[in-house]
Design goal:
The protein is an alpha/beta fold and 349 residues long. The protein has helices at 17-24, 28-35, 43-56, 62-67, 83-100, 115-124, 140-149, 172-185, 201-216, 233-244, 258-270, 304-323, and strands at residues 3-4, 73-78, 103-108, 129-132, 153-156, 166-169, 191-195, 226-228, 252-255, 280-282, 299-301, 332-334, 338-340. The chain is elongated. Pfam families: LacI, Peripla_BP_3.
């Protein structure tokens, strides 16, 4: 149904859509239109672009261009350290693409520095629109590039959506607030917290909600009770060791996602601590790892699969409106979250 682009298919010279646009003296969007056979481009402009393509030895993916005729292609730009998040996201995106008859194109972006070329590759391979899940959904450079190129795009799981782009998200602040209040209701007042990637807006809101809930309940959170993570399992191991090596341990640890919470459980087991008797642990997202660890994780369910489906539906809607020559106003969809209580937390005496 879909295909994955390979970085090895790129031209040896490394010329990009932006290079062609600069040489031809036109916008990147105009180059994209020429590449994809859009009839709205004048013959004079088309000639300039084709000349620049030849001079720069820019390799146009002819097969992708031909496949686009009558076909809708959805690009997915991903660079998420959590395999569980990406897996759940792909299930939803592929499912919705199947329903709409769209093709899904995948492009990996190793880091923020490579995002410009990754976007260029998606467009060169015929993407009509692009899905931007975390962490790139919070990249100002990526969002600016997409806006400048005029490519229909949808940001997924950003806590601060741009008014110029459609977005699908949950209320991360309320989700973390609900989880913190749950731990407080169980009798935990000394709670450790593992923060997520500071560049990712949901991580910022989840931490702020934790601090606000603790303060509202009259509890101070010392600096040593907060550890920095990056949403990866390995970073969770380091953060958990930091929190659990203290002379007096917290009675509970709230990690900003399930991968890091699973790491906390692993470290606790290594220290011969019982979960939840000696230390309660909870996460966020409700990815598959939440039910593959022992004990199973209490977490906040973020409907990642449903969010991906909704994002594809919005993107297809935008692309079809554009093809019909109709205007399209960005839409922001707020999906519901759910607190899922499992065996990793219980009442604290």
């Amino acid at each position: 149904m879909g295909s994955e682009t390979k970085q090895g298919d790129r031209p040896a010279g490394g010329a990009t859509v932006w290079d062609v646009a600069q040489k031809a003296g036109v916008s990147a969007m105009t180059v994209s239109r020429v590449i994809n056979g859009n009839a709205s481009v004048s013959d004079k402009t088309r000639e300039k672009v084709n000349r620049a393509i030849q001079e720069l030895n820019y390799q146009v993916n002819v097969a992708a261009r031909a496949a686009r005729i009558g076909t809708l292609r959805v690009g997915l730009l991903y660079s998420n350290p959590s395999a569980a998040f990406l897996s759940a996201f792909l299930v939803g995106a592929l499912g919705e693409c199947s329903q709409t008859g769209a093709h899904l194109i995948l492009e990996n972006c190793d880091n923020l520095r490579s995002q410009r070329k990754a976007i260029d590759r998606l467009i060169a391979d015929g993407a009509d629109g692009i899905l931007v899940p975390p962490p790139l959904c919070d990249s100002k450079a990526a969002l600016k590039q997409l806006a400048e190129m005029g490519i229909p795009s949808v940001a997924v799981a950003t806590a601060k959506p741009s008014p110029q782009m459609s977005a699908v998200r949950i209320d991360d602040y309320e989700g973390a607030l609900t989880m913190t209040k749950h731990l407080l209701a169980l009798g935990h007042t000394d709670i450790g917290f593992i923060k997520g990637d500071p560049e990712h807006t949901p991580a910022q809101l989840r931490y702020q909600a934790f601090i606000d809930a603790m303060r509202e309940a009259g509890h101070h959170v010392p600096a040593e009770r907060v550890a920095q993570g990056m949403f990866t399992y390995r970073s969770g191991l380091l953060a958990a060791r930091e929190l659990l090596a203290q002379p007096t341990r917290p009675t509970a640890i709230f990690a900003s996602n399930d991968d890091m919470a699973a790491a906390v459980i692993a470290v606790a087991h290594g220290l011969h601590l019982q979960v939840p008797d000696d230390i309660a642990v909870c996460g966020f997202d409700d990815t598959p790892v939440a039910t593959t660890v022992w004990p199973e994780l209490t977490t906040v369910h973020q409907p990642i699969t449903e969010m991906a489906r909704s994002a594809v539906a919005l993107l297809v809607e935008h692309i079809r409106a554009r093809r019909a020559g109709q205007s399209y106003m960005p839409q922001h969809r707020l999906m519901p979250f759910t607190l899922v209580e499992r065996e990793s937390t219980e009442a604290h005496d």
